[in-house]
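Lecture 7 notes: from sequence to structure.
We start with the chain below.
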Amino acid sequence: MEVEYDEDGNYKLKIILIGNSGVGKTSLINIIQGKAFSETEYSNMNCSFISKEMTVKNIKFNIYLWDTIGQEKLKAQTKIFFKNSKIVILVYSIDIKETFDALKEWHEQIITSLGDNIVLGVLGNKKDLFENEDVKDEEAQQYAKSINAIWNLTSAKTERESFITYLEDLIKIYIKKANIETDDKDNEIVRQPTIQLSKKKQKPKKKKKC
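Predicted structure tokens for the same chain:
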């Protein structure tokens, strides 16, 4: 897997969020930007991206996170935004089965545009709506496994940190696939050598004469 660098010599990493309109891609992007969750967040009518510096395994990345349009009639236009993507996250809403079923078509477009030399994720959003669950975890896990993707659940509303952790996990997989050398010295446990103290032999006590 090829690597790219920005002007400062840091690793440049393009990540795409793809899926139907209304699954919460914009809300997930807002987490990375540090924006508060909004119930009235509108879906993007075009493609936009944010850039963010992230450090994973002691490696500094300049992340370009793209939020693509999800309207069915505009799917063909999203192909131009796939170029140079290294990580693609297929997003569905756990309470709308239609958004999950649509992932198969999205995946076909990704493979057609990028091939299979990418890191794939399948992410179920709106975990907070579990009472209205329309997509079973087992079904989503099985689908993710079939396309060699990493599956997870999150909620852009109530489990914001879990999305960041998930993103970091995907980046770690990219690091491995791209054969990027890491420096994990900060994570090593420094063990002090064990010094064994020898006990002094005691001199035998002299017997007292009567």
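Points to note: The first strand starts at residue 4 and ends at 5. Helices lie at 25-33, 97-101, 103-114, 137-146, 160-177.
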